[in-house]
Amino acid sequence: FWDSFEIILNGEKIYTEPHACIIYKPNTPQYYSCKSESTQDWFRIVGNMDKAMKKYGLEYNTVYYPENYEFISSLTRKMEFEITSRDRYYCDMCDSYLNEFFVLFSRGISPKEESNSINSETRTQLIKLRRQIQREYNKKWTIDDMANFINLSPSYLHASYKRFFGTSPLNDLISVRVERARVMLSDTKKSVNEIATILGYNNPSHFIRQFTKKEGISPYKYRQQTKFENIRRHRFRELS
Question: What is the pTM assigned to this prediction?
Fold first, then answer.
C-alpha cells in the first residue's frame, strides 16, 4: 500500500503506515480502504508458496515494512507486461521476477549488521522522518530541514539514514516523488509541468532529469509506454 490504509487482518482492524506490504494466505478475506484516492501494487500467485515462504523467512497475513520498496512497483510492472504480452517463455520470466521479488523482499525486512550499530532512539527518529517524507513528499525538503525535524546534525543524519535504510534521505525523497509521478503519468492527463509542480519542484527540468535517471526513460516516453501497455492489456482482456 503506497499510503496509510485501514485494513482488517486476522479479524482485527489496524491502520498501516505508508508502504506496508502483506502476503495474504490463500482464501483469506481481504478488506482495506483509504480516506484519499490511492493505489497499490499487487499480484496474485498461483500455486503452493509454503516452501518459498519458509525459505525466505516470511509469514502469511503479516504487515511488513521493507526498507527499500522501489523494486516492488518495478517487478510488478514487469510481471504484468509478461502476462499481458504472453510472449515466448513468459511464465519463465514471471518465475524469475517472482524469485527476485522474494529475495529483495526478504533482504528488505531483515536487519543488517551495519544498522545494528544505530541505537534504538535514533532508529525511531529515522523511521519517523522517513514516514514524514513520504507524507509530505511535495515539501521543499533540505537536509537541514530533515535534520531539524528529528534533532540530529545534518552529517550524522545523512550517515545514519544511509546506514539504516541503504539510501540517502534526499534520494529517498526523490524515489517517493518519482513513484507518485508514475501514477499521475499513467492515470491522469496532467502535463509534465503540472506534475512537477504538484510534487514540489520549482523547475520542471529538474523533475525530468531526476525521473529519467531513476526510470531510465523520460516522463514523456514513460507516459507513451504505459499508454501502449494499457491498450495491449485492454485488448487482451477483451480477447480472454
Answer: 0.60
